[in-house]
Amino acid sequence: MIATLGVKNGIVFILSSMLLQNIIFIPILFALAISGIRLYKSIMKDRRRENIKLEILRHTIFSAILAVALVLASFAETYVSSNILMLTLKKL
Q: What is the dihedral of CA 39, 40, 44, 47, to 10 degrees?
């Protein structure tokens, strides 16, 4: 894109198309990974059946909340990012 549009316009195009998506998705994926690691550690640390069920329930609820956030982020990416991209292309 930089070779086609030039340095300034190429960077603006790349930032407008990729930045919003990555600002939302990457922290959510990191949070989900950390939650999974915490679940694993808590299961290995304390193997009582009641505690395992509670930890799995916590992780499942947290994962469901993050799944809803990912769906909302994908809608935002679809509509907001595409509109920003169209505005950017009109300015170029």
A: 40
pLDDT digits (tens, 9 = 90+) for 44-70: 888 777 778 888 999 999 999 999 999
Neighbour tally for 53: CB within 10 Å: 10
Token duo for residue 9: 């316009």
Three-class HEC string of 63-77: HHHHHHHHHHHHHHH
Q: How many domains does the chain have?
A: 1
Q: What is the CA radius of gyration of the chain?
A: 20
How far, in Å, CA of 66 to CA of 72, rounded?
A: 10
Residue span of the structural domain in which 14 resides: 2-91
